[in-house]
Write a structure and sequence with these properties.
Blueprint lengths: L2 H23 L5 H6 L3 H16 L5 H16 L2
Helix pairs in contact: 1-4, 3-4
């Protein structure tokens, strides 16, 4: 892996950590409230992403759920 790839991977990881941190600290909304507001397809996408991140990615469950929620919300806004 070249230096450029290492830099890109680091930036992606750092970006995810910052977004997770923001979600955990922002607006006083509980994750449960945000998840409850997802549509059916969004909820399915969220649950699948969280499971993959936890089982295949080795993330702790709480972190996998936060990351999956961020990715689901971001995908819905694109």
């Amino acid at each position: 892996m070249g230096n450029l790839e290492l830099c890109i991977n680091y930036a992606k990881k750092r970006s995810l950590e910052l977004r997770e941190s923001f979600l955990a600290e922002s607006s006083g909304l509980a994750l449960d409230e945000l998840i409850a507001g997802l549509s059916g397809p969004e909820r399915e996408q969220y649950e699948e992403r969280a499971a993959i991140m936890e089982i295949d990615g080795g993330l702790p469950r709480a972190r996998a759920e936060r990351a999956a929620l961020l990715e689901t919300l971001r995908a819905g806004n694109e």
